[in-house]
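Q: Start with the shorter request: fold the first protein.
A: Done. Sequence, then structure:
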Amino acid sequence: MNRRRGTRITQLQSSRAPSGGWRSLRNKQQCQNQSKTQKNEVEAEDQEKEIKEMAPRASCQTMCPAQELWNRESQNRLHCFEVVPGTESFRKPKGDPLRAVKEYSRPAAGKDVTKPSYLRPPDVLLKTVCYLIDEIAGSTSLHPWTEVYSFVFDRLRSVKQDMIIQRLSGKDCVAILELTVRFHIYASYRLCGEPLRIYDPRINDTHLQEYLNWLFDCYKTGTGPYPNQEEFQTLGLLYNLGSSPATQDVLELPERLRQTPSLKLALAINQAFLEGNHVHLLRLVQKLDFLQTCALHRHLVTCRRHLLLIYSHGYHSRNCRFPLDRLAQLLSLEPSLTAELCQVYGIEVNQHNQVLFSKSAFTEPEQGELNCKLYHSIVSEKQRGLTVKSIIHGCT
C-alpha cells in the first residue's frame, strides 16, 4: 500500500516538474525579449543622436539668406511679392528682407548646399511656412491665385530642401509637414480645371504624396503625441480613395485611432468606393468637413460617371422616364447642372425634366468638354465663412 502511494506521489511530482521548467524558461525568454527591446531602443536613440550630430548646423535667422537676397536683387530676379513696396517700377526693384523667401534651387556641381549661413534652423523654417500661409496664400489682395500658388509652391520646396539637408525630424518636422499638406490639398481643389501651363495637377499630386508619406513616417517613428494624426490619416485615405497601400496604412493604426469618428467615416467611404456603391458614397460625403471634401473631390467625377453608366444600363427602356430632380439628389447636384452633366455623357433629358437612360447612347466626353469646376458645389457649399488662412491652419 505504501509502495503504491509512493509510486503515485512520484508520478505526480514527475508530471508537475515539466510545467515548472516551462515557466522558468518562459520567464527567461520574456526577460531576454525585454532586454533586447531596451537594447534596440537605446541603439535607435544613439543612432538618432549620431544622425543629428552628422547633420549640418543651420545659422540663417532670416527667411532668405542675405547673400541670396543680394544676388537676386542685383540680377533682378526678385519676385513681386518680395520687393519693397513702391520700388516695383524701378529698373532693379529693392528686396525686402522681411518679405523675401529663399527660393528653391537644384543642387549643382561645386555648390555647397550645407553652408550654415544658407540653412535655416527648424524654428525659422516653421516661421517661414507660417509667413507663406498667412501673408501670401491667405492674402485677399494678392492676385491671381495661380501666381500665389506658384510662389508658395516653390518656396515650400526650398523649405523641404533645408529640412532634408538637416535631417529634420520630430515635432518641428511634423508641424511644417502638416501645414504643407493642407496647402497642397486645398490647392488641388481650388486650381482644379486650370490650364496645364498654369497649374499641373500631377506635379502637385507628386509632391503631396511625398509630404504625406514623410508625415506618416514621422507619426510611426516619432515619440509623439501627435494631436493631428487622426485628421491627416483621414485626409490621406480620402485623397487616395480605393488605394490598397493607403487602406492598409489605416488598418494598421492602433485601435483608438481607427475608432475615431473621422477615420470610421473615411473607411466607410472607401468601402463604398471599392464596392461601387456610389449613391451611398455621395450620401456619406455630405458628412465630411470642407478640407476632407477637398481631399476627396478629385474622385467625384469618377463616381458620378460610374453612377450614370450603371443607371444607363439599369433603366434602359423605351418607356422608362427617370425624374431629373431625383437624379440630382443622388448626384448631389443642382437639377440644371445634372441636366448638363447628362448631356455631356450623351444622356437625353426631355422638356418635362425627365431623364431617358439608354446604354447605347452613353458616350465618353471629349477632352476638355467636361469642366469639373462646374460640379464642385458639394465642396464649395462647405467653405462658407472659412478663410484660406483658417483652412490651412486647421481651424475648420
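Q: Next, the second protein, separately.
A: Sequence, then structure:
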Amino acid sequence: MTMLLQSRAVFTLGIRMCSTHVTKGLLKDTVRPNSDMSEFRKVFSKAKHIVIITGAGVSAESGVPTFRGVHEKWRKWMSQDLATPEAFSRTPSRVWEFYHYRRGLTLNKKPNAAHLAIAECEARLKKQGREVVVITQCTDDLHRRAGSKHILQIHGNLMETRCMSCGDVTVHARNPICAALKGKGAPGPDVPDANIPVDKLPRCEETDCHGLLRPNTVFFGETLDSHILTKVEKEMEVCDLCLVVGTSSIVYPAAMFGPRIASRGVPVAEFNTNPTPKSEYFSYHFQGQCGTTLPPALAPHESEVTH
C-alpha cells in the first residue's frame, strides 16, 4: 500500500524519477499476459480511441542512445546525474556539452519501422473516425518526423530550447546550436571539460533578453509540464486500448500510465525486447524488437473499410 500511495503521489506531482522497484499488488490482480497476436488484433479492430505509450526502446532501434547501457556514462559522469537542474546550475558548460553530444547523435537518425507503423495507423484510423494518440517519453522528435500528429511529449524535445530568463521556447535543429560548442562534447573518459564561458553558451534571441538557454527537456527531479499531464490524464480516462511500446517501465510517472489504464479494465498490450516490472499487469505481451512486432499489430485489419 505504501508503494501504491508513493506511486500515485509521484504521478500527481509529475516528478520525473527513475526507480528499480517492482510495484507489487498494484491496482488490480495480476495475470500472465497473453501473446496471441490474432486475439490482440480482434481487440484492435474494435478500438475507437487508442493510446500508444512509447519509451527509449523505440528510439534505440533507430540508433538513438538511451541513458542506460553503453551510454550510461558520458566521460566520467553518469548521464542521469548530468540531466538534472542542479548540474545545469553548477556547470552549464558541461551539461551543454553533454546535450550537444546527444543532439548530434540524434539529428542524423531516422524513424524506424515502429515509428512509421504508428504514424500510418494514426492517419489510416483517422479516416475511419478512430483516434490514435502517442504519449512518448522520447525527446528525439522521431515520432513527428515519422508523420505522427497527435503527440504528447512528456519529457520535452531535445531539438527545442527554453530561455531561463523569459521562458521562450524555440526549435533549434541546427548543429552546433552555438559557435562555442563546435567540436565539443566528445564522450571519452579522459576528455577535459571545455569550460565555455556562460555568455558564449546558447543565448536567447528574443529582443532585449539574451538570457541563457537550456534544453527544453525535463531533467530528472523536475516536475513535468502540468498542461501535458492534464492531457495525459484525459487520454488515460477515455482510451479503450493501450499499447506500451519500448519502455522499461522504471521511469516515473510514465511507468504508472499503463497500469493505471489497465486498472479500468482496458486491454493493455506491451511490446518490448524483454518483460518489464509492469508486464504482469497487462493483458498482452509481445517480445521482440518493436520494429518487428509492432507493424503487424497495427496493420489494417480485415474488418476495416478501405477508402
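Q: Describe the second briefly.
A: The CA atoms of residues 11 and 132 lie 23 Å apart. The longest helix spans residues 92-107.
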